[in-house]
Design brief:
alpha+beta; six-stranded antiparallel beta barrel; 6 helices; 26% strand; disordered N terminus; Peptidase_S1A; Peptidase S1 domain-containing protein; Trypsin_dom
């Protein structure tokens, strides 16, 4: 390679790396929250189906179904994920804090994106505690949006989250011994800022973090609704409420002997003509299938 060309390319690469590693902090007051989009409303997502982009006015007029409002200390590991889409506007997903430096979210939210900000202590989005920029986005290497497979991404925060163990606290991860469990019939909690279905023009994110609790269903039952479900998925019933648009990447947790830990990350839900219809299970990424990958690519230590 020509030495001059090599130097030029190296300079471009260094500039790109520095741009990623030194992101600017976002002022929440600078965001027009009424035009923040769900994943399904983004121009990139709609282009996959040959649909035209939506205008901000259309977003305003077209807006966890059946959930319960969370207090600031109820789900301190919940993280809002704001994706800066440039001319397509901002979009929003959910995520989960796994350490002071790392957040898990759905790959389908951040694949192909470069500028992301995480909201913490944001049970009330009108009073966000912290907005921290993301310095690196790592998509699972086998992620396939088409196949709904390996829908997982690790976000590196540009600075440590101010953990107070009250309103901001990393979620506990499964132990390696938990990998043998199916969790079938366990009660699981899903939490996010997605649509509630309570109003037609509901903005995303909703003002308040909400959670819903329901039973884990077997993958065999889940396959009756989604034929492509496999061992790396874990499904939860939506009879008592469940995830909706904007909840992609939301944490799914269970409690065992007083210990609350992560078993899933929301990936996919059924959206019918009435919004996120109840009755079909919500599909999540099964965290116990990815313990090695998470440990290798973050500072999280998985216990035996």
């Amino acid at each position: 390679m020509n030495p001059l060309l090599r130097v030029t390319l190296l300079g471009v690469l260094l500039t790109a790396v520095l741009a990623i590693e030194s992101p600017a902090e976002l002022d929440p007051k600078s965001i027009d929250w009424s035009t923040v989009r769900t994943l399904q409303e983004t121009s990139k997502f709609r282009a996959k189906f040959g649909l035209a982009p939506l205008s901000d006015d259309e977003i305003r007029s077209s807006r966890i179904s059946g959930g319960t409002v969370a207090a600031p200390s109820d789900i301190p590991w919940a993280a809002g994920v704001l994706i800066h889409g440039g001319t397509s506007g901002h979009s929003f997903c959910s995520g989960v804090l796994i350490s002071a430096r790392f957040v898990l979210t759905a790959a389908n939210c951040v694949s192909g994106e470069s500028t992301v900000t995480v909201a913490l202590n944001a049970a009330n989005m009108a009073n966000i505690g912290y907005l921290i920029s993301v310095s690196n986005i790592l998509i699972h290497p086998n992620f396939s949006w088409l196949l709904g497979r390996d829908d997982l991404a690790i976000l590196t925060l540009s600075r440590d989250a101010p953990i107070d163990n009250v309103t901001i606290r990393p979620v506990l991860m499964p132990r390696r011994s938990d990998a043998q469990k199916t969790f079938n019939d366990w009660m699981a909690t899903t939490a996010g800022w997605g649509n509630t279905g309570n109003r037609d023009d509901e903005p995303i994110p909703t003002q308040f973090l909400q959670w819903a609790m329901d039973t884990v269903t077997s993958n065999l039952v889940c396959q009756l609704s989604y034929t492509w479900v496999r061992s790396t998925h874990i499904c939860v019933s939506t009879d008592n409420g469940g995830p909706c648009n904007g909840d992609e990447g939301a944490p799914v947790t269970v409690r065992e002997a007083g210990r609350i830990f992560l078993i899933g990350l929301h990936s996919f839900h059924y959206s019918g003509i009435r919004g996120c219809d109840r009755g079909r299970s919500a599909v999540n990424t099964r965290i116990t299938e990815y313990l090695d990958w998470i440990e290798q690519n973050s500072d999280v230590v998985i216990q035996p």
